[in-house]
Design goal:
Strand content: 15-25%
CATH topology of the largest domain: Alpha-Beta Plaits
Largest sheet: 6 strands, antiparallel
Shape: globular
Number of helices: 13
Helix content: 10-25%
Strand order of the largest sheet: 10-11-7-9-8-12
Length: 526
């Protein structure tokens, strides 16, 4: 590797030029870090995913580089934070892969503090006396009790879903497996973390807390089990490291849309967090948020005095997307089910899944039109598509997306009846990620009601665009052109599902004169 100083200068130029690598690397680039954020707080973003092996802080530039012990840990971290933007000192920070495969900081000046922070936080993560002394006086069990928690939920007046539990407990680390069951007339849960220290943090922070005010109280202890065995992935049990498990006899597929009325109207989660001295707040906590209680959109709950923080239900919970925890699986073919056979087409799936990678082939099953296979360019893109599209509503149905047992999609043999249900898009000019380091890599967001439009001809007016989207059944709530570039704009529609439908219908829309509209999901609102 070249000199780290020049390397980071080059990297910053590439960030400004939109050429940052799309390809996974152990080294992650973190930007838009506000003044006052410490090295320990930045490093703590990576701890739930694995060991942080090196760290470089560029305080004057508001940037940092974080090196993880494995590429799998880095992929899991990027996948998670793509769905749920982390905050440091109440400001969002953004994480993406670096072009560099390792960090060398031996000759870097002004890095003594960050390196000391790295050593200190890694020590804390692996169970130093600082943690045991911080928690020891609270009557909790010391680390080493295992990574499986046994949770009893008391006063269950509202529906508790597996996805809800995942969102709550994943704030403290890497949740691998969850099993829910009723025993002795009690609602109980077994939950396994990747690391025993994550389980310890969760127990110390959540034991005795209530999911809803005055009910659904969590009583948490350590299980005698060292590992959980999950047979089925459904609404009662889930192994997040195995996407190939069956749903189980008599069980419906996991519907992760979180549409229960109880969760939609009573979604407060009260979780005070004190933590160990000098240790940053756990994954997903908006730091410096004071006494705020975070809820889903449309629900306003007054703050409760004395709370030091609260769990945020991530946007991914609303649309049912669960972040990847398995790194890079080996398969690039996706199984997509519960599709609307009257509306779905291979082209529609090509456009939608193409937001998250280059789609090579699509096959809708001849005898079961509600099921399809989608072959992505590689396994990383396949996992990204699962993260963003599993549980998304498409043409009135909740779509389920997982890895297929097939390694490739076979094209129909000559003379074989197919009715155009299998399509090859390997050489399509509509691939968004044809060029390594494409700017599109920095603009991958979950499906949303707000769409980013680009390549708009100068002759096209606001009314023209509103009428175009309305003609496809969209409810247009607002539109604005970008001040600095009138070729781009944002259009806000009535729902996320409308946004998905409009993207499928209007991406590559021909305005004439070889000018085609480009449509992407936006993280912004109007």
């Amino acid at each position: 590797m070249s000199d780290p100083a020049s390397a980071t200068d080059n990297e910053k130029k590439k960030v400004r030029g939109g050429k940052l690598s799309c390809f996974p690397s152990r080294v992650l680039h973190i930007r838009q870090i506000s003044t006052g954020v410490t090295g320990s707080e930045v490093i703590a973003l990576g701890l739930p995913f694995g060991k942080v092996t090196n760290f470089l802080m560029l305080k004057g530039k508001g940037q940092a580089f974080l090196e993880m012990a494995s590429i799998e840990a880095a992929v899991s971290m990027v996948n998670y934070y793509t769905l749920s933007t982390p905050h440091l000192h109440s400001q969002p920070v953004y994480i993406q892969y670096s072009n560099y495969k390792e960090l060398k900081t031996e000759n870097q000046r002004n890095q003594a503090g960050p390196q000391a922070a790295l050593q200190g936080v890694n020590t804390v993560q692996h169970g130093s006396m600082a943690i045991t002394s911080a928690f020891g006086g609270e009557g909790g069990l010391l680390p080493g009790q295992g990574s499986v928690l046994r949770i009893v939920v008391e006063n269950v007046f509202y529906t508790i879903t597996l996805e809800m539990l995942y969102q709550i407990f994943s704030k403290f680390g890497y949740v691998l497996k969850i099993i829910m069951f009723i025993k002795n007339n009690q609602f109980q849960v077994l939950l396994q973390y990747a690391d025993g220290m994550n389980a310890y943090y969760a127990k110390m922070s959540l034991d005795g807390q209530s999911i809803y005010p005055g009910c659904c109280t969590l009583r948490i202890g350590f299980s005698k089990l060292t590992s959980l065995k999950v047979k089925y992935n459904n609404d009662k049990s889930r192994d997040f490291t195995r996407t190939d498990l069956p749903f189980g006899d008599g069980q419906r597929p996991p519907d992760t849309s979180l549409t229960s009325s109880a969760f939609a109207t009573q979604n407060t989660i009260l979780v005070p967090y004190t933590g160990a001295t000098g240790f940053a707040q756990p994954l997903g906590f908006p730091q410096g948020a004071g006494d705020a209680i975070y809820t889903l959109p449309g629900v306003s709950v007054p703050s409760v005095p004395g709370l030091l923080g609260s769990l945020t239900v991530a946007p991914s919970a609303v649309s049912g997307q669960i972040p990847a925890v398995t790194g890079i699986p080996g398969n690039s073919v996706l199984l997509v089910s519960n599709l609307n056979p009257e509306a779905i087409t291979p082209y529609g799936l090509f456009i939608l899944f193409g937001v998250y990678g280059n789609v090579h082939r699509v096959k809708i099953m001849f005898k079961k039109r509600g099921i399809a296979l989608v072959q992505m360019a590689d396994a990383t893109q396949a996992q990204l598509a699962i993260n963003h599209l599993n549980g998304q509503r498409l043409y009135g149905r909740v779509m389920h997306t997982t890895l297929s047992k097939y390694q490739t999609i076979q094209l129909p043999r000559e003379g074989q009846e197919d009715k155009g249900l299998t399509k090859d898009y390997s050489n399509s000019p509509l691939h968004r990620f044809k060029n390594p380091g494409s700017r599109n890599c920095q603009n991958i967001f979950p499906p949303s009601a707000t769409l980013h439009l680009s390549n708009i001809p100068p002759s096209v007016t606001v009314d023209d665009l509103k009428n175009l989207f309305a003609s496809k059944g969209s409810t247009v709530k607002g539109f604005k052109f970008f001040q600095k570039d009138c070729k781009m704009g944002l259009i806000q529609l009535g729902s996320v599902e409308e946004g998905v439908h409009a993207l499928i219908e209007l991406h590559n829309h021909d305005f004439g004169g070889n000018q085609h509209l480009r449509v992407s999901f936006s993280k912004s609102t109007i």
